[in-house]
Hints:
- InterPro entries: Kelch-typ_b-propeller.
- Keywords: Kelch repeat, Repeat.
- The chain is an alpha+beta fold.
- The protein folds into four domains: 1-77, no CATH class; 81-287, Serine Threonine Protein Phosphatase 5, Tetratricopeptide repeat; 306-703, Kelch-type beta propeller (Neuraminidase, 6 Propeller); 713-747, no CATH class.
- Helices cover 28% and strands 22% of the residues.
- Strands 1, 23, 24, 25, 28, 29, 30, 31 and 34 form a nine-stranded mixed sheet that branches. It has a five-stranded mixed sheet with strand order 12-16-15-14-13, with no helix packed on it. Strands 2-3-6-7 form a four-stranded antiparallel sheet, with no helix packed on it.
- Strand 35 (705-706) and strand 36 (713-714) form a beta hairpin.
- The chain is globular and about 80 Å long.
- It starts with 5 loop residues before the first helix and ends in a 6-residue tail after the last helix.
Amino acid sequence: MVRITDETRARWESSGNRMANVERMLAAYNGVTEPLETAQKLVLRNHDDESVAKGVYKAMRASGSATWKFLQFDLPVPIQQFGNLAAGVPQLLRAMALKEDASALFARGDHPGAIAGYEKAMRTILGDDSISFPTQKFYFEPYLSVGERGPSSYETPPRFAPTHFLELLALASNILQSHIHLNQFVEAIDWLHEFRQILACVRLTTLPGPQPSWKDWCLPYSEYYLLRFKTWLRGIQVFNSLGNTAAAACFAQLCMVDYGTVDHDTLASFPRLHAVYKEMRPDQWFQHRHPEPNIFERHVAHPDLQVLGVWDRIQYAPGDKPPGRLDASTWIWRGTLYVAAGTTNRENPGPVGLQDMWALNLQTRKWRRLPDVPVTSLGRKRDEPNISGQMRVRDSRVYCFLGKPTIAVFDLVTEEWSIIGTSMQPGVRWPYHSNGDRLEAFATAILDHNLYVFGGDDAKTFLGTNIFMALDLNTMRWSHISGTTGLVTPLYGIELRTNPAMWAVPSERRLFVMYGAAKRSNAYMGSMEGGASTDFAYTDIWSFHVDNGQWTREKLRGNHPSWRTEMACTWSPALERAIVYGGYNSSAVTLDDSRDYGASDLPSMFRYSYFGDTLLFDPTTRIWKHVLVKGFPSYRALSSLVCDPDDGKVYIFGGYTNCEYVPANRGIIRVYSDLWQLKIDMPGGNWNPKDLERDIRSERNGPWRKCYTCANVGISWQKCGGTCGGKYYFCSKDCQRSGWKEHKETHGCRKKS
């Protein structure tokens, strides 16, 4: 006999299920001896109430009845007359049985068996036994059909099955947990993003029309939030285990945002939800910079997700050098590094655009000045900020585009600029606002004979654009491939943005576009649609195939960068990898432990983060690796990363940071003019095995210094005044006295006479 306990009755009643239906179903079940016949009747009679079917299934299992075994067989054809919803009920019940069996395997420590069972349950819900997990396409049709709409599109309410959706989320999260137990972090991250993918697909098909990614979306179910909390906590666990504190902080941020969405009455009503909330530790989650200078261990524990590297600062020869700047254009040609344009910061009047151009001989390390970029001929004012142009080199010519059909070309042989007019494809208007009077914060790349331009701010909405253009450098004719100016959200396409990363992979015949931001704060100040107090950092990566002209949303895989904008990137032919460094996120929380806020129990936080981490992208596997370094240039954004096409060496130049976030003794904004070389322990990475012997105590960690004696990290440590040239630092006179003998014997340092 199947009975309903008081606890079950109360739970069903509180969740709004029809108690009379439940009791009628169970009465029918208890009065019939044939289990299969009974199960069919229950499903047919109550096909419109999935929650009831779910409750009956749990009651059957709890009773010890063998009736649940009917789920292993196909139901008769007549059930199809009730349509997709009715057909989904027996699928759901079968999947729940499989899930319970898989959970039993998980409890016994058989995690591979549990994974297979959970995946089978997902296939059962989706109605296709041939599905391979994790899925390859981001916009996966079976996930989209969970929230599938009727033929009238957005005017018709969706045929949304929340129970199916929640079960899919639970199964994906369970598979993620199983891979964590197996120490399989590549697979764990795959399933972390499979969970996010299910959320995104159902959101896409249930909101009223295409909505920008920052549009809130949630379900009024406590189980929905419980699953999200648990999954984000597992994401934090995975990335912290890999030393990727920035990515871990992203999922911590998701936890905090979700917690702010749930009202306190709901938290109090559901003890399980409240218990998960108690696991939240914002004081621990957001205490780190990225990288964190106090984390000394830099060994590769997961070779498929980590690799060793070092940054070496390049010392310039005496003489003139370019002033510090952000968002400069850089390239290397025949052993010379070129730096052009960008923006600098001055206390008065503030940001100032630069038109100067410099060349650094990488052998002699001496700078020389070249002719200025002719920005006034391209419709820009001298000293106007945000002049970069993302210049690109092809053969011996450099191309500078600033938003107008006219472009500037620099001849690297004669070292002269020329102005060249271009045209649009016949019958197509110039797509940028105001005829391209101002375009900034866009991305460029060259593949074959085409210069590609994506995104940027053209002053239409201040949010950004998703305009994608190609200039044929042989014919000087533009093609408008996709996108528009203004706040228009494509259904399955890449959204408007500024400052994304963009690189070309010739072997794949693809361009990749990653992250970036919608400048919601600019729109807010301009009283425009889409405005908000903080910008929105995107969490997606896209590829464009230049032969078939199709955009594809790629799945994030591996030890990937946290969400950000203004990061530096380059493609390395020697490594056959893309490299990303640094960047900025205006809504990523960081604890501020430098100030005393009295008796407040709440820690003070920066509502933004700057990054100084280095990551590699393999286009063949789509897997990211985190480069583990002993030291790094600094936390900075809008720096310039460039690869020498001849010897494969990778350099980073310039950038900026906020001196409140990164302590310094010079103003609010600091711009850099330094140059660093990256070495990576892999073929083509210019690695020197002796780099492994370098003393971590002498490495620069942005603005931080390590005490030679106690390894404590700080800003104001005193450097050694001996003959070592100030290579080592001490945090106090006591540490200097304690460590002097070792320092003298190890490094031959002596007091200066």
